[in-house]
Fold this sequence. Notes:
Blueprint: H1 7-18, E1 42-52, H2 64-81, E2 85-95, H3 101-116, E3 121-129, E4 134-144, E5 159-163, H4 168-177, E6 181-182, E7 187-188, H5 195-209, H6 215-223, E8 229-232, H7 237-248, E9 250-255, H8 263-271, H9 276-282, E10 289-293, H10 297-302, E11 310-318, E12 323-326, E13 332-334
Parallel strand pairs: 2-3, 9-12
Antiparallel strand pairs: 1-4, 2-4, 5-10, 5-11, 6-7, 8-10, 9-11, 12-13
Helix pairs in contact: 1-3, 2-3, 2-6, 4-5, 4-8, 5-8
Pfam families: AIRS, AIRS_C
Domain PurM-like N-terminal: 30-143
Protein name: Thiamine-monophosphate kinase
Amino acid sequence: xxxxxxxxxxxxxxxxxxxxxxxxxxxxxxxxxxxxxxxxxxxxxxxxxxxxxxxxxxxxxxxxxxxxxxxxxxxxxxxxxxxxxxxxxxxxxxxxxxxxxxxxxxxxxxxxxxxxxxxxxxxxxxxxxxxxxxxxxxxxxxxxxxxxxxxxxxxxxxxxxxxxxxxxxxxxxxxxxxxxxxxxxxxxxxxxxxxxxxxxxxxxxxxxxxxxxxxxxxxxxxxxxxxxxxxxxxxxxxxxxxxxxxxxxxxxxxxxxxxxxxxxxxxxxxxxxxxxxxxxxxxxxxxxxxxxxxxxxxxxxxxxxxxxxxxxxxxxxxxxxxxxxxxxxxxxxxxxxxxxxxxxx
Length: 345
């Protein structure tokens, strides 16, 4: 059944039944505004991200359930980068009236499932008819008063770190463009590939479609006072390191041989004649955390014995040198590239 067959207000009621009744909010869906009571001793964090069909995703490569998960996940990553705790979400959906109602059902189930992993409830939003499918999530989070980790605190002499491994999300996008598709738990292939490559492609596409918000890692770094500055890697390591350095008024050098490249990214890059390092530097959408710290490396590594890896990849310098990559042959080259919504080549 199409959305136009039931109209806006019946659709709102349908969404309301999909979402659990909020436990944290004073008011949820049904009033002109949702209402939250701030937690004593905490500052509010507010973030929003918009995903647009044929710009940030394509209907042919992502299910509505995974689209819901990704729309929530990219916002959760912003809260992680500030060292905060996510709390509640507002969702704005612009959608063609001829779309099937089941698409909306699955979209909101994805939003619900991703949010539930971090105790986030959808407490309101808006609907509109549109020729182009667009989904925007505004997320409310909290952090202890004065303890938000910003992009502007990096200091010369500190080390530069990243969580996890890089490049898999970009590799997943390459595979999707080549015709591979992620079904429930396996990959649909346009031609025969080995079992091991098929698994690498599955992992890469999964990372592209459903990023992993590093909420727990961001909280640990913030609460311990480890991170002096932090940013999530949405546009690519090269671009996001440049953002951090600009806000901090510093320069940086990272080492090629220290950048942790995901094994699936390397395998997919080799299959499609791509450079794994380029996927890590310019690919984007890894949604790992990039942070700076003066702490002893052994103490930082010890914070995450059973969780995600953390890797020191470079050093912060005084302003005036820009952001550079030290190649394995000793040459230093300027870092460049990364995703830009408005850049046209």
